[in-house]
Every structure is written in structure tokens, then in C-alpha cells.
Amino acid sequence: MKPRLLDLGDGALTLELGDRIDAALNAKVMAARDSLVALRLDGISDVVPTYRSLTVHFDPLRLDRNMLGRRLLEAALAPSQESALATRWLIPVVFGEEFGPDLAEVARVTGHSEAAVIDALCAIELRVFLIGFLPGFPYLGELPEWLRLPRLATPRAAVPANSLAIAGAQAAVYPWASPGGWHLLGRTPARLFDLNDATRPALLAPGDTVRFTPVSRDEFDRLATAVALRELDAAQWQAK
Amino acid sequence: MIEILDCPMPVTVQDAGRPGYRHLGVPLSGALDPDFLAIANALVGNPASSAALELRLLGLRLRATAPLTLALAGACSAQIEDVSGELRPAAAWDSHSLAQGETLIVGKLHDGIAYLAFAGGLDLPEVLGSRSTYVRAGIGGLDGRALKAGDCLKVGAGTRPNPLRLPQPPRPPDGPLRIVPGPQREYFTDDAWSRLLGDEFVISREADRMGLRLDGPRLEHDPERGADIVSDAVTPGVIQVPGDGRPIILLADCQTVGGYPKIATVIGADLPRLGRVLPGQTLRFVEVGIDQALAARRQAANDLAACLAGMVPSGAQLDLIALYNTNLIDGVIDARQANQP
User: Fold this and answer.
1) Which residues from chain B sit within 8 angstroms of residue A49, using beta carbons?
2) Residue A123 belongs to a domain with what CATH number?
3) N or C: fewer beta carbons within 10 Å in chain B?
4) CATH number 2.40.100.10 is the correct assignment for the domain at B177-296
5) Shortest CB distance from A11 goes to which of B127, B232, B235?
6) φ, ψ for residue B210 (rounded to 5)?
7) % of chain B at pLDDT higher than 70
8) Can you give the residue range of the structural domain that contains A188?
9) A222/A160 same-domain check
10) Interface test mutation site (partner A, options B49, B234, B257, max chain A beta carbons within 10 A)
11) Do A144 and A203 belong together in one domain?
């Protein structure tokens, strides 16, 4: 698909690069994001990458719309190397039991053991395609074909914060308690959204990559306590 | 301090919003009608983006636990009750002083929305650079929620205000809401586009700070394309249409991305009008080009600046107003200082 500009009202422009959920396409979006952000244009309030597009919210009385459009089309040509703004994360998760009430059912439906489900999920480096739905809510992908399940027929009224969940080709970690229809496999002790950190309130940003690593219940408790006491900060979860 | 005695409809703390975090899924939020917010703040000498109370549909009652100066922007009927129970009018578009123990009673809001600003602003912590309340995630304002009876809010300590009045309230705009074609205009039949521009829509009861669902004609998607897209960014003013064909206009608290096709976007200059509409009211749309949208935005900014510059000292008599207007030629600031006691 040829890159094109779409008007999102007079205060935002969308650069559309495609119409699919696809890692290579998303990498192009992040490259365009990096390229545009590097220009440090005045009058931009938000630069929002999604699966397949990049939207710039701006003040058209301060930043010339046509100029921005040209810069966006140029940014579309940026080579999609590894994003300079991306971080690689290693996120601990305790799987199963009350932390992951759907693990047993996911194993049963897919015809694998619980251990095989955990191994498969932890073996892949997942890409943060998009943050949305709720502040800090990451859409991660993509899961192996055999692990792709439809959403729950009846969504839960309350998914506990920090739950790791899967549905379709995607995984997510709920930063907040919220209703949700995905399959809950485990829980992380990591703080996913910190309102006190105005520089980077969300742990995960679009374009980052995430690998999950299983921890024991005791280790989860130890880490969760340290996070609550603020003895551990976000840097703790960066992949070495 | 102010103490909320009664608020029948949700009242939230709002300022100019929380830009800069939309890539992390944090909505813009902020005043639905930034013009009225700026006016309310200017009346009590606050910076335009200070936090104020956003009132919807019906007003509220609150008590001043210490002397304070406040102002209302948005047509409404309001009164102040002193400690002996005597009532005096508290006109909108004017600033008023309350003595300790006095009560402000705001009744029906004729514009559907009003902002109540306090000299010195509201002393609440900034969350991600803003005091705006985003109820869905419990961010900002007072504990991230709408106010309720019994809540107490601290008024910021500021310079002694020079209370102002707006002699010419902004004229309520009329005419159809101006829209530009949306990113997914091609997802809709030409018939749907004609209906959007030709027919009348009614604001349904499903209306909150996230959006307004419209009743009226259904807008049909092109059957070849359907009603789902791979999610991309949305913004306040977007008109998105889910599979049922009933359009939703997104407002300040809308999510940052969405998966419904966007047929059109209300232009920035007309966004404040969306804060003033009420369930049951009718809406019409007219298409404009991006250049017209930009011209309208420029015009709106000039109109607001002229409105703010046209404020006069509260309680000033005609001769003072004349004097003030004469001094305008030397600049607003000088004129205000000239009238200080």
C-alpha cells in the first residue's frame, strides 16, 4: 500500500502505511515515528503510532499543515531498522492458579500442557504494536497460530490489574483493573503505569519489545513487595 | 476552601487537558468548552488554562469556608446566599466575592455547560501535567472522580484578583456544525454521506464526556468494506460509525485509538459547541474544506482574544467602562491598573 495522508480534522494528520496487523508494517510505522520526532517540529502535541499508521496532533496555527504533510510523507520512507526509541523488556510473570485462572482451559483447548503454553509464550519476543484502550494498555503480538483463541464468550466484569492475557494473535498486560474478555494466564509484579512519572508514565511504549519470563509465586511476592515499596523501578525490567 | 453541598449532575475539575501522552493511551481530556473555561478564568484573573469546575445541565451548591472570588462562564441562573439567608443575584459572565460561610447556588444551565473558576485556581496536584479529571482511569481532579456532596477543595493562593465582568457574552453560535471528510469517508456509501449532510440528527441520552451518540438516519457502510478497521488514532470531534450505523461524535475524554470507520470530523473551531449540546437537541452538519476549517480556527482564536480584551472591572459604572475603552488603545493591562483602587 502506498503511504498516504488522511485528514483527521484540522488539528491532526494521519500517515497511513497499510491496513493490516503485521510486524514489518508496524516497524515501518515506528521508523516513521522516529524520523518525525527527530525533526522536533514546533506546535506538535502528540505523535501516535498505531498498527499501521502514524497520527500527529498539532496546532495548525503554529505549524503549517502542508509542511507537516510533506515531512510525514518523507518520514514514510525512513528505513525500518530497529527503532532508536524502542526498549527491550524482560517482564516476570507468575503463571496459573489464581493469577492465571484461564491457563488450564487454554492448555486443554489447544491440546497442550500448561507448561507448553507457558514455554511458548515466554519463547517469543513480542512487539508492542499499539498502546490504547486504557492508559498504558499494550497490544502485544504476535502469538503462534496454535495459541490464538477467540475472546471469552462472557467478558469478566473485573480483570485484576497486572494480569497477562491473550486473545487472537495478541497478548496484553492490564495496567489497571478493568472489565475484559481475554484469557488470563498470569500476573506480573511490574508496575505498568505510574501516574507519578510524568516523563514516562507507561512502562511499555509503542515499538518496544517484550519477553515474558516465568517466576515462582515466592519470587512474585518478593518482587511485588519491592515494587510497592519503590525499591525497584522500571529500569529493573529492561532486558540486559 | 470550598465545600460542595449538592451537585445533581456530574461536576468535574477540568483545565486545558493533558496533551503529550496520547501515544501511551492517555486521553486528552480537559474542558469540553475551552472558550468558556478561558473566559471564567480571565474574569477572576487566572491564566486561561487554570483548573475550574465544569458543570453540566444543572448547577450545584457550594459554600465558601473562607472569603473567595469566583466567576461563572456559561449562561445560567445563580444566586449567593449570605449567612442570614438573604439572597443576591450572581450573574454569569461576572465575578463575585463570597464572604466566609456564604453559599453559591447555581441553577439550570441555559447553555448546557458552564465553568466556575476561582481566583487563584484550584489547589490540586497535577497528574501528568494537568488537573483535568479522567474518570474512567481515575486520573486527575479530586481523586480522579466527579465531585460529590461533602467534598472540600482548596482554592489556590494567588495575587489579589481584580475582578472583571464581560459586558458582551459570546453570542451562541448557530448554523450547522462544520465538518471535514474523515479518514474513512470511503467506507461509506454516497447515500450515507448525503444523509450526514442533508438530514437532521438528534443527541441521544447516551452522551458523556467521551462522546455523543446520535439518533436519526443510519449511516450505511459500503458493504464491500464493512464496519471494522484495524485501529488507528482518533481525536475529539471525530464522527465514527459502528456497525449499527448510529454515528458517535467523540469528545475530550475519548480513547486515543478506535476501530470504527470515521466518516467525518467536526472542525476545531466548532468543538466548543459540542460541549453545549443537550440530549434531545437536533444537529445538522455542513461540509467545509481544510482551508475553511483553518480560517475558522483563526477567526475563533481572534474572537476569543477580543472577548477577553473586552472585559471591564466588575461593578464598574458606565463612565468607568468608557474610560476603560478609551484606555484600550494603550493596552488592556494599563486600563486595568488605572481602575485599581
Assistant:
1) 23
2) 2.40.100.10
3) C
4) yes
5) B235
6) -85, -35
7) 91
8) 88-237
9) yes
10) B257
11) yes
- Total structural domains within chain A: 2
Q: Read off φ and ψ for residue B20, nearest 5 degrees.
A: 100, -5
- Contact B166/B39 with Cβ under 8 angstroms? yes
Model pTM?
0.91
- pLDDT tens digit sequence for B319-328: 444 444 444 4
Residue A18's domain is classified under what CATH number? 3.30.1360.40
Q: Is the pLDDT of residue B269 over 80?
A: yes
The residue in chain B having the minimum alpha-carbon distance to the alpha carbon of residue A129 is B231
CB contacts, 8 Å: A19 with chain B: 229-230
Residue B331, pLDDT score: 37
Q: What is the 3-state secondary structure (H, E, C) of chain A?
A: CCCEEEECCCCEEEEECCCCCCHHHHHHHHHHHHHHHHCCCCCEEEEEECCCEEEEEECCCCCCHHHHHHHHHHHCCCCCCCCCCCCEEEEEEEECHHHCCCHHHHHHHHCCCHHHHHHHHHHCCEEEEEECCCCCCEEEECCCHHHCCCCCCCCEEEECCCEEEEECCEEEECCCCEEECCEEEEECCCCCECCCCCCCCECCCCCCEEEEEECCHHHHHHHHHHHHCCCCCHHHHECC
User: Is B24's CB within 8 Å of A50's CB?
Assistant: no
pLDDT on residue A80: 82
Q: What is the pLDDT of residue B159?
A: 62
Q: Looking at residue B172, what is its pLDDT?
A: 73
| Chain B: residue whose CA lies nearest to A204 | B24
Report the pLDDT value the prediction gives residue B171, as an integer from 0 to 100: 80
Asked if A8 and B297 come within 8 Å (Cβ–Cβ), the reply is no
Domain residue spans of chain B: 2-165, 177-296
Complex ipTM value? 0.94
